[in-house]
Amino acid sequence: MKFEVTILGSSSATPIYNRNPTAQALNINERLYLIDCGEGTQQQMLKFDVKASRIDHIFISHLHGDHYLGLVGLLSSLHLNGRSKPLKLFGPAPLKEIIDLQFKYSDTTLNYEIEFYPTDPTQPAVILDTNEITVETIPLDHRIACTGFFFKQKKTLRKLIKEKVEALAIPVNYFSLLKRGQNYVAPDGTVYQNDELTIDSSVPKSYAYCSDTLYNQNYFAQIANADLLYHESTFLHNMLDRALQTHHTTAWQAADVALQTGAHQLLIGHFSARYKTLNELLDEARSVFPNTELAIEGKTFTVGA
Amino acid sequence: MKFEVTILGSSSATPIYNRNPTAQALNINERLYLIDCGEGTQQQMLKFDVKASRIDHIFISHLHGDHYLGLVGLLSSLHLNGRSKPLKLFGPAPLKEIIDLQFKYSDTTLNYEIEFYPTDPTQPAVILDTNEITVETIPLDHRIACTGFFFKQKKTLRKLIKEKVEALAIPVNYFSLLKRGQNYVAPDGTVYQNDELTIDSSVPKSYAYCSDTLYNQNYFAQIANADLLYHESTFLHNMLDRALQTHHTTAWQAADVALQTGAHQLLIGHFSARYKTLNELLDEARSVFPNTELAIEGKTFTVGA
């Protein structure tokens, strides 16, 4: 089952050096989820061929402009491009007021419904639970209310071993039970163990998105063993004072989060405009956690690769 | 005296084909003025080397998102990049409420002052009058309150003809009067006509910006004889019905505005996303008004060239 993240923006507060403010598109089994939506996100989606019309869920971490200023433009474009199906939007409560005010003064009535789900920044909560995934908020420690998002795949059904099932002439109405792990009792009373007849088709993967935050152990337990951890890494560790002051994280700290929480792979992003090139940030993180990559524009990462 | 306009965005409602929503930077004698500020304008300024820090005046025509959704990001970046000098902002009254709400929830207190001047969409008004220019609002006919902006250079002082002034040993304290057109009376009573001693150094130029609007003769008299007219041209004339319905203008109509109002040169822009290429729009406008150019991203036009 596909589980990929495409980076649309890697910049912190101000866009520079062709780095755009934060946005990421998740593709989970051909469903698209958008996380954060900095200014220019819809242009980035055009550039990297992420089909905006296919997004049904948008998650906004917090109300600093570099994480949501592209949202009203995107919502408006979806409307103008004929969207009719509802869109689910998760974010801080005042986001609704901000959107409503702008559509009020542009005299816009959307052709589709926005189902808005305000997030609670004080405690983790499952905010979406589908057949395929759950999404939990991760309370982060930033200057204003901010949550990360933890995407977890559910275990999929087991797959039938076609030859075995056919050889035993198992009736079709048993298939659903077999896929769920039941054994098969033949008409002659013989019991066939489930693992003779099916295989476990996948191991569910998880993606933890943590931006923006102070390095803070409060969220470590929740994100334990993520297959892929995205963690903001605004500064080099020689700027720790600045990171503490602005409630951000250094590359060294982001890597330490990955190490402490048992992540399989780390992506770092949300780079300060002071860094024209990113090698030093990557090197610093890799010195602590080698399996680290830069979350830069246009790159797609497979969760659990 | 320099008087140039650089196009930062040429797209109507939705960005597409590398066309960005509307924004233009005017350079008048090395002072920068920004007109409209669609999403991604700050990224476009970086791309085309328009120094945002040098902008002291921003003009917003109306509150459709493709004309202002880049503003809060730009204001925020100016703040983060250390701006301290005030910024003058002209636009529809609710714009202030929209900005204030977003800075409230991002807990941002700007380091510089925004002096906000609400525009009146019902009648023309001079909204800025400096030593060098005046700016008038142009009431337009759109679905929501919308004004264009008419930038007019003032006549500059006459230039002294150095050899004549030196030959007559005219005292320095006369220079200012001569530059303003006075004659010179020598100590022996001889009267020297001003035009023997000075030359008219420049002819003041004008730039009319008209976006978005229905073709409507109400604004024709006001923009008469513009050296450069920018007029929206959202559709080809075979889409006239759609133009009427959405309060926009066709390429044929934009050219007719230029013709009727005696413009020297026409720029057309604000192109619908339905046009992948723009040749047909240009050809249609030129069939009526030959001195027409496409207002496309990164192009700079000299007013009165």
UniProtKB/TrEMBL annotation, chains A, B:
Cofactor binding remark: Binds 2 Zn(2+) ions.
Top-level taxon in the UniProt lineage: Bacteria
Family matches, as CDD domains: RNaseZ_ZiPD-like_MBL-fold
Signal peptide: none
Active site: D66 (proton acceptor)
Keywords carried by this UniProt record: Endonuclease, Hydrolase, Metal-binding, Nuclease, tRNA processing, Zinc
Membrane-spanning parts: none
InterPro entries according to UniProt: RibonucZ/Hydroxyglut_hydro (IPR036866), RNase_Z/BN (IPR013471)
Entry keyword rRNA-binding: no
Protein function: Zinc phosphodiesterase, which displays some tRNA 3'-processing endonuclease activity. Probably involved in tRNA maturation, by removing a 3'-trailer from precursor tRNA.
UniProt cross-references to PANTHER family, sorted A to Z: ZINC PHOSPHODIESTERASE ELAC PROTEIN 1
Protein name in the entry: Ribonuclease Z
